[in-house]
Amino acid sequence: MLSFTNISRCQIRILESPVRSFIRNLHRGPIPVSWEKPQIGWTKLNFDGSCKGTAGKASIGGVFRNHDAEFLLGYAESIGGATSTIAELAALRRGLELVLENGWSNVWLEGDSKSLVDIIVKRKHVRCKEAQRQVSHINLIMPELQNCIVTHVFREGNRAADKLARIGHQLQKPKIWRHIPPDDILQIVHEDAKGKIVFRRR
């Protein structure tokens, strides 16, 4: 599990398990990926955006879990036409709004878009006006949290959020699940809690 010691107020970093890093550098075979629990007192948000079709129909989704890997809240919605970057940003923004609504103060934010993590962590410039709007809103919310970190994970470690984002395509209006996830997510949540490893092909 990742160490959260000495994390300052709203510190934003890219963290990687030393074991995962060692394995990645040791050989070029499949990479073992698993979802990781937050420490006691922390809430973890996994978020994702989904785009499909030539029209770029987009949707978002996310899932909150505690240190026991228990499902706290999930969300999904269709957001209309958008690029994949905007969808990812919208998914994070909506998740942060829910963080404030639920009073969580120590939050681990994790997504599978490396470019989004770079935008937030490295303050990478975005040209698109809508993307800039999303980033500005995210940057307003994050300082409100007592502690937060942002990390990247491969999609294999973000399966629950990925599934919720795809469910969002089917929804006519935004939806939130509290305490009990939708049936399509339940098995993934249980597998993540048990530390299931999914191998990523290079």
TrEMBL record:
Coiled-coil boundaries: none
One term of GO molecular function: RNA-DNA hybrid ribonuclease activity
RNase H type-1 domain sequence ranges: 39-170
Highest taxon of source: Eukaryota
Transmembrane segments: none
InterPro entries given in the database record: RNase_H-like, RNase_H-like_dom_plant, RNaseH-like_sf, RNaseH_domain, RNaseH_sf
Name of this chain's protein: RNase H type-1 domain-containing protein
UniProt source species: Populus alba (White poplar)
